[in-house]
């Protein structure tokens, strides 16, 4: 028998042994679970029999309360234990199918022999709980597997650095307990395994990559030193994958102190949120809080104002006619996205300490109790050096006192009697008991039942007004913000300032916040009303960070002052035009709190697709394809009727085995037009900004909704010069092309767009129809 076969046999033998151990453990847990289930059912059934209920004397009530509490605690403890066993059984089931994917043999300095370390998705001890049969991929020692080839190696533990020598690094492909493949490898984890993983069909949910994490990605996953971890990675370089494995790593590393609510992921759209929702549960971790930045803003701004969605913003921008307004609008977006605007806002807010803050009348039943002028006078009579939110606190206290006075006056009015008649029996009964209880108390000797009920009606009627005062709703935030554009003399005004002022005040009068306005407005609101920083979030992940403006990122930094942040993005895919130097992906690292990792290798697409897209990548950065062969991208030049050539192409792609084929358009409008043409002859699923999940098949979507997602094949129905022309559309075109894993097809009925012209003709196939 060859050495290789002997090794394989020995390894299969070990796999069998581990599976036997798993079987034993499963059996033990099932027995425990059955006993526990019975005891939980018993506890639930006999709950009220086992507690002693006696409510006669106050001591008895306390005793009864303690008895119920004790019984409830017992029940929840058992239920928790039941849940834990359930979780462990789920993990064992996964391990039984595929107990581990890697092995390293490591000899620690000072030791004479090497220890084999087997690495899998979770740890497993032997039946005596003495030795690790499998190490979790996140254990400190497992980092050796991702970081080194044979030779000198080291890893970090809580107690310091462990150095030694790695004598073997082996990868396994185990399915249903049988070794299907086994390779001894160097530092990059198996081309063979990666080839297999990447050659598969696209899935409608993202996969975990633990068995093939690359060295650079491992750096992202395990970084614990920096407050800001910035990852600039080309399309398909595994940024999102690394981010999700990093979350799983942090949840494991800090499992005692970090829970799923302490981690937030800002994703680019709702579709993406469900696309990645599988990864963490697959790794045995709960999903963390996921939201889009838009949803976050809407939630904080409140439902009284309408916030333009980033997709509507994109759609309008891309379908807009390029008249004079176009330049004004662009100037407006650029200005409102900039730190310059933030500075102007800060200056404006500082002027409000002296004058200018707008207030609302305090009214009750259509009668003004305190006028806005009175509130303003009171506010500006306070010490100007006190911060605005603190002064508002004082105003609120004053207002509550004023309201209380009014409350007394209201008591004897007719409306109170009318409301009293609407009270139900219970409330009258309550008043009756109340009077009985007060009988002994001289203080209340004169109070009648009617007085009591009048007081109650008035108190309830004033409750919501008082609540609003406590929330500082007497400040007219929108009106004050608007004055920045109507009244405030701005120094160093940006280009088109008069138009910007006019546009903005018109929008604001209609309660409408454009996308570029929303963050600025929220920033203004929180600065005026006071601290709303979120201290519960310990880790914030921002995917597609290139699409955040400098203003938005500055706001996020201020709102999460105690949070560690991982920012992932690709400047080549920046679909909202912001100046690159202000991008969060190009941080200024003055205080050393930033670590920036650049990923240049692209794993998603075939070598031919990466080669093609590299020529027009906006930043022209070095992009290195992973060596996976495929067809050259195709450009189909047709005679004007797109339906026939498009259907023929889709049919051919299906025949090639592609299950998820995306027709990616520039805009929603283009999607709608195409759907009209195709709906009679093809079953297409249209994806819009509200779509939360999708099935395999033929999908139709605008490029800005395809962000972060991948498909077996991508068809770009119109790559004409008229469709993708200006520089601003380069990133859109690049993003669309790089969604393809295996095949890319483009169609045009005329001249190809300038970006394709930048690619040498031998890099793609032209088909003229
Ligand atoms: N180490 C790896 N092992 C296996 N597959 C990987 C690895 N890294 C990346 N991939 C695969 O490459 C593809 C792209 O990964 P991912 O979506 O994380 O990249 P991205 O950088 O976020 O892409 P984009 O910016 O274009 O949206 C996915 O199919 C992912 O599973």
From TrEMBL:
Enumerate the Gene Ontology biological process terms. Answer: recombinational repair
Q: Which UniProt keywords apply?
A: ATP-binding, Helicase, Hydrolase, Nucleotide-binding
Q: Which residues form the UvrD-like helicase ATP-binding domain?
A: 212-606
**What positions does the entry give for ATP binding?**
233-240
For this chain, one GO molecular function annotation is: 3'-5' DNA helicase activity
Q: Provide a GO CC annotation, any one.
A: cytosol
State the source organism's domain of life: Bacteria
Q: Which residues cross the membrane?
A: none
Q: What is this protein called?
A: DNA helicase-2 / ATP-dependent DNA helicase PcrA
Q: What organism is recorded for this protein? A: Gracilibacillus orientalis
